[in-house]
Design a protein that fits this description.
Number of helices: 8
Order of helices and strands: HHHHEHEHEEHHEE
CATH topology of the largest domain: Rossmann fold
CATH superfamily of the largest domain: P-loop containing nucleotide triphosphate hydrolases
Radius of gyration: 22 Å
Strand order of the largest sheet: 3-4-6-5
Distance between the termini: 56 Å
Number of strands: 6
Strand content: 5-15%
Largest sheet: 4 strands, antiparallel
């Protein structure tokens, strides 16, 4: 199927348009968000990775959803193409004024795109806060380890690693799931699971250091 057929199918099913109306609407929509019209006439294999990504993003927001869930939207893209696709995603989100939930392991992407971050370890949220605060003053030891591992411009010192291995989620450790790898672990950490507690105006951490 050509790209335009994917757009038209959604418009026909969800908006009740005829085939001709759907094709016309798809072309108008593509132009309005800066997607080249030629991209609609191509088959997916004829498009670059970045253009395929932009086309998929355009399809995801075609019906103006209030919520967009983007799971690793920059994976398998080179740095330049990644920047183009993420900028496109951000521009579309701002234009619609909707909510974008981004799932990613790339903290650089989080820093550029998000307003708030929820950090997870072994399936549990360990910290929630505004993006700037997460990077400037991380609360949870796991978040701190993530931030400390990031390369910094002009800093050639060795980055600190995190010892141990992630737990087997079929048999997670009792208490705090991070405690076997945590330099600040106490007896209570291996017995009881910490709850998210408020730290400051808009930050929360699940750690016995703040109990």
């Amino acid at each position: 199927m050509r790209a335009r057929a994917h757009f038209a199918e959604m418009l026909k099913i969800h908006m009740g348009m005829s085939k001709e109306e759907a094709y016309s609407k798809a072309e108008e929509y593509a132009e309005s968000i800066g997607l080249p019209r030629d991209a609609l006439n191509a088959f997916p294999h004829q498009l670059s990775g970045g253009m395929r990504q932009r086309t998929v993003i355009a399809m995801a927001v075609l019906l103006k959803p209030e919520l967009v869930l983007a799971d690793e939207p920059s994976s398998a893209l080179d740095v330049i193409t990644q920047r183009t696709a993420l900028t496109f995603l951000k521009d579309v989100q701002r234009g619609l004024g909707n909510t974008l939930v981004l799932v990613t392991h790339d903290m650089g992407v989080q820093a550029v795109l998000t307003d708030r971050v929820a950090v997870m370890y072994a399936g549990k949220i360990v910290e929630i806060g505004e993006t700037a605060g997460i990077f400037e003053k991380p609360l949870h030891p796991y978040t701190r380890a993530l931030v400390d591992s990031l390369p910094r411009l002009g800093d050639k010192s060795q980055r600190a690693g995190l010892g141990g291995q992630p737990p087997d989620l079929r048999r997670p450790p009792a208490g705090c799931r991070f405690h076997p790898r945590c330099a600040h672990a106490m007896d209570v950490c291996s017995r009881e699971e910490p709850q998210l507690v408020r730290r400051g105006d808009r930050s929360h951490a699940a750690c016995w250091l703040y109990a």
